[in-house]
Amino acid sequence: MVRAIVVVLLVTCALASREAAYHAWRTEHKIATAPSTEEQSWYEKSSAEIEALTTASPHATFKLNAKAGSPWGIPRGTLSGSASLTYRYFTNEQIETALNTSVDWQKTPDVPLEGAVTRIKNQGACGSCWAFATVAAIEGMYKQKGRSLSSFSEQYILDCLPPTVGLNGCQSGDIRTLAQLLAVGNYPLPYETNYEYLSYDNTSHACNATPVGVAKVSAAYQIGTTGTQALEDAMAAWVYNYGPIIVGVSSWQSAWQLYSSGVAECPAVPMNQLDHGVTIVGYGVMNSVPYWKVKNSWTPKWGETGYIYLRRGTNACGLRWINTVVEVQ
Protein backbone atom coordinates (compact mmCIF):
# COMPACT_ATOMS: atom_id res chain seq x y z
CA MET A 1 0.00 0.00 0.00
CA VAL A 2 2.77 2.40 0.99
CA ARG A 3 4.71 1.51 -2.17
CA ALA A 4 1.63 2.24 -4.30
CA ILE A 5 1.21 5.64 -2.67
CA VAL A 6 4.88 6.46 -3.24
CA VAL A 7 4.58 5.48 -6.91
CA VAL A 8 1.50 7.67 -7.33
CA LEU A 9 3.26 10.59 -5.68
CA LEU A 10 6.32 10.18 -7.90
CA VAL A 11 4.19 10.05 -11.05
CA THR A 12 2.22 13.09 -9.92
CA CYS A 13 5.40 15.02 -9.22
CA ALA A 14 6.85 14.05 -12.62
CA LEU A 15 3.70 15.20 -14.41
CA ALA A 16 3.70 18.46 -12.46
CA SER A 17 7.36 18.99 -13.32
CA ARG A 18 6.69 18.41 -17.02
CA GLU A 19 3.72 20.77 -16.91
CA ALA A 20 5.82 23.45 -15.19
CA ALA A 21 8.64 23.04 -17.71
CA TYR A 22 6.19 23.44 -20.61
CA HIS A 23 4.72 26.65 -19.22
CA ALA A 24 8.17 28.01 -18.37
CA TRP A 25 9.18 27.43 -22.01
CA ARG A 26 6.07 29.32 -23.19
CA THR A 27 6.90 32.21 -20.89
CA GLU A 28 10.56 32.31 -21.94
CA HIS A 29 9.69 32.49 -25.63
CA LYS A 30 6.61 34.70 -25.18
CA ILE A 31 4.33 32.27 -27.03
CA ALA A 32 1.24 34.34 -27.86
CA THR A 33 -1.19 31.53 -28.71
CA ALA A 34 -3.17 29.67 -26.05
CA PRO A 35 -1.59 26.53 -24.54
CA SER A 36 -2.74 23.28 -26.13
CA THR A 37 -2.34 19.57 -25.62
CA GLU A 38 -0.87 19.24 -29.12
CA GLU A 39 1.70 21.95 -28.51
CA GLN A 40 2.73 20.43 -25.20
CA SER A 41 3.05 17.03 -26.85
CA TRP A 42 5.41 18.45 -29.48
CA TYR A 43 7.34 20.31 -26.81
CA GLU A 44 7.91 17.06 -24.92
CA LYS A 45 8.85 15.22 -28.13
CA SER A 46 11.36 17.99 -28.87
CA SER A 47 12.83 17.65 -25.41
CA ALA A 48 13.40 13.93 -26.00
CA GLU A 49 14.65 14.49 -29.55
CA ILE A 50 17.55 16.72 -28.53
CA GLU A 51 19.58 13.79 -27.20
CA ALA A 52 19.21 11.93 -30.51
CA LEU A 53 20.15 15.05 -32.47
CA THR A 54 23.25 15.60 -30.37
CA THR A 55 24.37 12.04 -31.10
CA ALA A 56 23.78 12.46 -34.85
CA SER A 57 25.44 15.92 -34.94
CA PRO A 58 28.37 15.85 -32.50
CA HIS A 59 29.62 19.22 -33.82
CA ALA A 60 26.33 21.05 -33.16
CA THR A 61 24.07 21.91 -30.26
CA PHE A 62 20.28 21.97 -30.12
CA LYS A 63 17.79 23.55 -27.74
CA LEU A 64 14.13 24.01 -26.88
CA ASN A 65 13.69 27.19 -28.89
CA ALA A 66 10.44 28.90 -29.90
CA LYS A 67 9.89 26.18 -32.54
CA ALA A 68 9.96 23.35 -29.99
CA GLY A 69 6.17 23.27 -29.76
CA SER A 70 5.67 23.04 -33.52
CA PRO A 71 5.36 19.81 -35.53
CA TRP A 72 8.53 18.38 -37.06
CA GLY A 73 9.42 15.16 -38.83
CA ILE A 74 6.41 15.44 -41.13
CA PRO A 75 7.56 15.90 -44.75
CA ARG A 76 5.95 18.76 -46.62
CA GLY A 77 6.81 20.28 -49.98
CA THR A 78 5.51 23.85 -49.97
CA LEU A 79 8.59 25.31 -51.65
CA SER A 80 9.48 24.63 -55.27
CA GLY A 81 11.92 25.58 -57.99
CA SER A 82 10.23 24.36 -61.13
CA ALA A 83 11.24 27.17 -63.49
CA SER A 84 14.08 26.32 -65.86
CA LEU A 85 16.99 28.74 -65.56
CA THR A 86 20.21 29.08 -67.57
CA TYR A 87 23.10 27.17 -66.00
CA ARG A 88 26.19 28.97 -64.73
CA TYR A 89 29.40 26.93 -64.84
CA PHE A 90 32.87 27.22 -63.33
CA THR A 91 36.22 25.81 -64.36
CA ASN A 92 38.05 23.28 -62.22
CA GLU A 93 40.61 25.99 -61.44
CA GLN A 94 37.94 28.39 -60.20
CA ILE A 95 36.47 25.69 -57.99
CA GLU A 96 39.87 24.72 -56.59
CA THR A 97 40.63 28.34 -55.73
CA ALA A 98 37.31 28.68 -53.94
CA LEU A 99 37.75 25.47 -51.96
CA ASN A 100 41.15 26.60 -50.69
CA THR A 101 39.65 29.55 -48.83
CA SER A 102 36.58 30.54 -46.83
CA VAL A 103 34.02 33.28 -47.29
CA ASP A 104 31.74 35.05 -44.85
CA TRP A 105 29.89 37.93 -46.40
CA GLN A 106 28.67 39.01 -43.02
CA LYS A 107 31.95 39.78 -41.28
CA THR A 108 35.23 38.54 -42.82
CA PRO A 109 37.53 41.61 -43.11
CA ASP A 110 39.61 40.38 -46.06
CA VAL A 111 36.63 39.71 -48.33
CA PRO A 112 35.77 42.66 -50.61
CA LEU A 113 32.05 42.02 -50.09
CA GLU A 114 32.32 42.16 -46.29
CA GLY A 115 29.25 43.80 -44.91
CA ALA A 116 27.03 42.58 -47.75
CA VAL A 117 24.47 40.93 -45.46
CA THR A 118 21.65 42.89 -43.84
CA ARG A 119 20.21 42.15 -40.40
CA ILE A 120 18.30 38.94 -39.68
CA LYS A 121 14.65 39.60 -40.50
CA ASN A 122 11.36 38.10 -39.35
CA GLN A 123 8.82 36.65 -41.77
CA GLY A 124 6.35 35.99 -38.95
CA ALA A 125 3.45 33.61 -39.54
CA CYS A 126 3.49 34.28 -43.28
CA GLY A 127 5.04 31.62 -45.53
CA SER A 128 7.03 34.28 -47.36
CA CYS A 129 10.45 32.68 -46.89
CA TRP A 130 10.86 32.50 -50.68
CA ALA A 131 10.68 36.30 -50.86
CA PHE A 132 13.03 36.82 -47.89
CA ALA A 133 15.63 34.41 -49.29
CA THR A 134 15.58 36.12 -52.69
CA VAL A 135 15.75 39.63 -51.26
CA ALA A 136 18.77 38.63 -49.12
CA ALA A 137 20.61 37.56 -52.28
CA ILE A 138 19.61 40.77 -54.09
CA GLU A 139 20.88 42.85 -51.16
CA GLY A 140 24.26 41.14 -51.35
CA MET A 141 24.57 41.56 -55.10
CA TYR A 142 23.50 45.22 -54.84
CA LYS A 143 26.32 45.81 -52.34
CA GLN A 144 28.73 44.03 -54.69
CA LYS A 145 28.23 46.86 -57.19
CA GLY A 146 30.04 49.19 -54.83
CA ARG A 147 26.89 50.67 -53.31
CA SER A 148 25.91 51.06 -49.68
CA LEU A 149 24.46 48.02 -47.95
CA SER A 150 20.70 48.46 -48.23
CA SER A 151 17.65 46.53 -47.07
CA PHE A 152 14.95 45.98 -49.69
CA SER A 153 11.26 45.18 -49.48
CA GLU A 154 9.83 41.67 -49.26
CA GLN A 155 6.34 43.12 -48.91
CA TYR A 156 6.61 44.65 -52.39
CA ILE A 157 7.16 41.15 -53.80
CA LEU A 158 4.10 39.83 -51.98
CA ASP A 159 1.86 42.76 -52.96
CA CYS A 160 2.91 44.09 -56.33
CA LEU A 161 4.08 41.34 -58.67
CA PRO A 162 1.52 40.18 -61.26
CA PRO A 163 -0.44 36.97 -60.56
CA THR A 164 2.02 34.20 -61.42
CA VAL A 165 1.73 30.44 -61.22
CA GLY A 166 3.93 29.28 -58.36
CA LEU A 167 3.89 32.55 -56.39
CA ASN A 168 1.20 32.19 -53.73
CA GLY A 169 1.90 34.93 -51.21
CA CYS A 170 1.94 33.71 -47.63
CA GLN A 171 1.07 30.15 -48.70
CA SER A 172 4.10 29.15 -50.77
CA GLY A 173 6.46 30.25 -53.50
CA ASP A 174 8.74 29.07 -56.29
CA ILE A 175 12.13 30.73 -55.88
CA ARG A 176 13.24 30.14 -59.46
CA THR A 177 9.98 31.51 -60.86
CA LEU A 178 10.43 34.60 -58.68
CA ALA A 179 14.04 35.12 -59.74
CA GLN A 180 13.12 34.72 -63.40
CA LEU A 181 10.16 37.11 -63.11
CA LEU A 182 12.31 39.77 -61.46
CA ALA A 183 14.94 39.35 -64.17
CA VAL A 184 12.68 39.59 -67.22
CA GLY A 185 10.10 42.04 -65.84
CA ASN A 186 10.35 45.64 -64.74
CA TYR A 187 10.06 45.14 -60.99
CA PRO A 188 12.91 46.95 -59.20
CA LEU A 189 12.64 46.55 -55.45
CA PRO A 190 12.07 49.63 -53.26
CA TYR A 191 13.91 50.20 -50.00
CA GLU A 192 12.37 48.40 -47.05
CA THR A 193 11.94 51.70 -45.23
CA ASN A 194 9.69 52.90 -48.05
CA TYR A 195 7.64 49.69 -48.25
CA GLU A 196 7.69 48.01 -44.86
CA TYR A 197 6.81 44.41 -44.11
CA LEU A 198 3.25 43.97 -42.81
CA SER A 199 2.43 40.29 -43.28
CA TYR A 200 3.72 39.04 -39.93
CA ASP A 201 0.20 37.80 -39.14
CA ASN A 202 -0.23 35.90 -42.43
CA THR A 203 -2.36 38.60 -44.06
CA SER A 204 -2.38 39.86 -47.65
CA HIS A 205 -2.26 43.52 -48.68
CA ALA A 206 -3.00 45.63 -51.72
CA CYS A 207 -0.08 47.02 -53.71
CA ASN A 208 1.09 50.49 -52.83
CA ALA A 209 2.72 51.53 -56.09
CA THR A 210 4.12 54.80 -54.75
CA PRO A 211 7.69 53.79 -53.67
CA VAL A 212 10.45 54.21 -56.23
CA GLY A 213 12.15 50.98 -57.30
CA VAL A 214 15.90 50.75 -56.68
CA ALA A 215 17.35 47.22 -56.99
CA LYS A 216 16.72 45.63 -60.41
CA VAL A 217 17.56 41.98 -61.06
CA SER A 218 19.17 41.63 -64.49
CA ALA A 219 19.68 37.86 -64.71
CA ALA A 220 18.89 34.63 -62.87
CA TYR A 221 20.80 31.34 -63.06
CA GLN A 222 21.19 27.96 -61.44
CA ILE A 223 24.63 26.49 -60.78
CA GLY A 224 25.67 23.62 -63.05
CA THR A 225 28.60 21.23 -63.24
CA THR A 226 30.73 19.59 -65.89
CA GLY A 227 32.67 16.33 -65.83
CA THR A 228 33.27 15.05 -62.34
CA GLN A 229 32.66 18.34 -60.55
CA ALA A 230 30.56 18.18 -57.37
CA LEU A 231 27.63 20.58 -57.37
CA GLU A 232 28.31 21.95 -53.90
CA ASP A 233 31.91 22.67 -54.91
CA ALA A 234 30.61 24.68 -57.87
CA MET A 235 28.21 26.48 -55.54
CA ALA A 236 31.18 27.48 -53.37
CA ALA A 237 32.81 28.97 -56.48
CA TRP A 238 29.77 31.22 -56.99
CA VAL A 239 29.85 32.38 -53.35
CA TYR A 240 33.59 33.05 -53.61
CA ASN A 241 33.44 34.92 -56.92
CA TYR A 242 30.06 36.64 -56.81
CA GLY A 243 27.82 36.40 -53.76
CA PRO A 244 24.92 34.66 -52.00
CA ILE A 245 22.90 31.69 -53.23
CA ILE A 246 19.16 31.22 -52.74
CA VAL A 247 18.39 27.63 -51.72
CA GLY A 248 15.49 25.51 -50.53
CA VAL A 249 15.71 23.30 -47.44
CA SER A 250 13.58 20.87 -45.44
CA SER A 251 12.98 22.95 -42.33
CA TRP A 252 10.42 20.38 -41.14
CA GLN A 253 13.32 18.26 -39.90
CA SER A 254 14.09 18.41 -36.19
CA ALA A 255 17.77 19.09 -36.91
CA TRP A 256 16.71 22.39 -38.48
CA GLN A 257 13.92 23.44 -36.13
CA LEU A 258 15.78 22.80 -32.87
CA TYR A 259 19.22 23.99 -34.06
CA SER A 260 21.22 26.20 -31.72
CA SER A 261 24.91 26.36 -32.75
CA GLY A 262 27.83 24.60 -34.43
CA VAL A 263 27.80 22.60 -37.68
CA ALA A 264 24.68 20.48 -37.97
CA GLU A 265 24.13 17.28 -39.86
CA CYS A 266 20.77 17.29 -41.65
CA PRO A 267 19.62 14.33 -43.77
CA ALA A 268 19.20 14.95 -47.51
CA VAL A 269 15.64 14.72 -48.79
CA PRO A 270 14.01 14.57 -52.25
CA MET A 271 13.33 17.86 -54.00
CA ASN A 272 9.58 17.52 -53.43
CA GLN A 273 10.09 17.67 -49.65
CA LEU A 274 11.59 21.17 -49.51
CA ASP A 275 9.50 23.68 -47.57
CA HIS A 276 11.66 26.70 -46.74
CA GLY A 277 13.72 29.26 -48.66
CA VAL A 278 16.96 30.57 -47.17
CA THR A 279 20.22 32.15 -48.35
CA ILE A 280 23.79 30.82 -48.29
CA VAL A 281 26.05 33.74 -47.31
CA GLY A 282 29.34 31.96 -46.66
CA TYR A 283 31.28 28.73 -46.26
CA GLY A 284 34.38 27.39 -44.59
CA VAL A 285 35.65 24.76 -42.16
CA MET A 286 34.91 24.63 -38.42
CA ASN A 287 36.62 22.06 -36.21
CA SER A 288 37.65 20.15 -39.36
CA VAL A 289 34.02 20.05 -40.58
CA PRO A 290 33.20 21.84 -43.88
CA TYR A 291 30.11 24.02 -43.57
CA TRP A 292 27.69 26.38 -45.29
CA LYS A 293 26.68 29.52 -43.41
CA VAL A 294 22.97 30.05 -44.04
CA LYS A 295 20.85 33.12 -43.29
CA ASN A 296 17.33 32.39 -42.06
CA SER A 297 14.30 34.69 -41.56
CA TRP A 298 13.05 33.48 -38.16
CA THR A 299 14.43 36.39 -36.07
CA PRO A 300 17.89 36.53 -34.40
CA LYS A 301 16.52 34.46 -31.51
CA TRP A 302 16.51 31.30 -33.63
CA GLY A 303 19.70 29.31 -34.25
CA GLU A 304 23.06 31.05 -33.98
CA THR A 305 21.80 34.66 -33.91
CA GLY A 306 19.54 33.86 -36.86
CA TYR A 307 22.00 31.72 -38.84
CA ILE A 308 22.56 27.99 -39.19
CA TYR A 309 25.78 26.21 -40.14
CA LEU A 310 25.11 23.06 -42.18
CA ARG A 311 27.64 20.39 -43.13
CA ARG A 312 28.84 21.14 -46.65
CA GLY A 313 29.09 18.40 -49.29
CA THR A 314 26.23 16.25 -47.97
CA ASN A 315 23.21 17.97 -49.56
CA ALA A 316 22.20 18.85 -46.01
CA CYS A 317 18.43 19.33 -45.73
CA GLY A 318 18.33 19.05 -49.55
CA LEU A 319 19.90 22.49 -50.03
CA ARG A 320 21.51 21.89 -53.40
CA TRP A 321 18.36 20.86 -55.31
CA ILE A 322 17.02 24.28 -56.29
CA ASN A 323 20.04 26.54 -55.92
CA THR A 324 19.34 29.90 -57.59
CA VAL A 325 21.52 32.98 -58.08
CA VAL A 326 20.87 36.47 -59.41
CA GLU A 327 22.74 39.41 -60.88
CA VAL A 328 21.71 43.01 -60.22
CA GLN A 329 22.02 46.03 -62.50
Automatic annotation (TrEMBL):
Alphabetized UniProt keyword annotations: Signal
Coiled coil recorded as keyword: no
An individual GO BP term: proteolysis
An MF annotation (GO) of this entry: cysteine-type peptidase activity
Signal peptide extent: 1-16
CDD domains for the chain: Peptidase_C1A
InterPro entries: Papain-like_cys_pep_sf (IPR038765), Pept_cys_AS (IPR000169), Pept_his_AS (IPR025660), Peptidase_C1A (IPR013128), Peptidase_C1A_C (IPR000668), Peptidase_C1A_papain-like (IPR039417)
Residue ranges of every copy of the Peptidase C1A papain C-terminal domain listed in the record: 99-328
Entry similarity comment: Belongs to the peptidase C1 family.
Stated name of the protein: Cathepsin L, putative
Provenance organism: Bodo saltans
